[in-house]
Amino acid sequence: MTSTLSLSELTGDYAIDAAHSRVGFVARHAMVTKVRGAFNEFDGRIKVDGDNPANSSVVVTIKADSIDTRNAQRDEHLRGSDFLELEKFPQIQFVSTSVAQDGNDFALTGDLTIKDVTRSVTIDFTFEGTAKDPFGNVRVGFEGTTSISRKDFGITWNAALETGGVLVSDKIVLEFEVSAVRAA
């Protein structure tokens, strides 16, 4: 059961609980379906200023080689030079630059770096609530999404289809389901 703590009561430093969180993505494949994947290894810090959410901040670092689309051959292709180039760029990072609040919704803007290319993105998050877990930890939950163009990050590989269109969409939807634990 989630509690009804006010945002000001949530002020503090939090660590993202990767075991109970998800950093995922969705790409259109062959113009007819979607392929979903996730990054299984990441960590992050959240600083919540409940009295002035604009002073809050987030840093997330993702191990790019933890990409998982449930298909080993595709995952190896994504790790290679056509896509993420893990030999040169082993991590993806997001560092917030601003936070705006509208009720339980937040617009988190920041610098997303993929393949040594940094672009500003805004992720729309919904505050899902708080809970005190059986171990006495205060947890907060957020869910969010944003869309990016993979070409903006230098990821341009594709294959033309006989029927028109391309094998992999340029638009990638990023999905975040975050559970974070307040530092003691």
TrEMBL record:
Q: Name one Pfam family in it.
A: YceI
Domain spans labelled Lipid/polyisoprenoid-binding YceI-like: 13-181
What the entry lists under SUPFAM superfamilies is as follows:
YceI-like
Q: Which domain of life is it from?
A: Bacteria
Q: Which InterPro entries match?
A: Lipid/polyisoprenoid-bd_YceI, TTHA0802/YceI-like_sf
Q: Which family does the record assign?
A: Belongs to the UPF0312 family.
Protein name, entry field: Polyisoprenoid-binding protein YceI
**Species of the source:** Crossiella cryophila
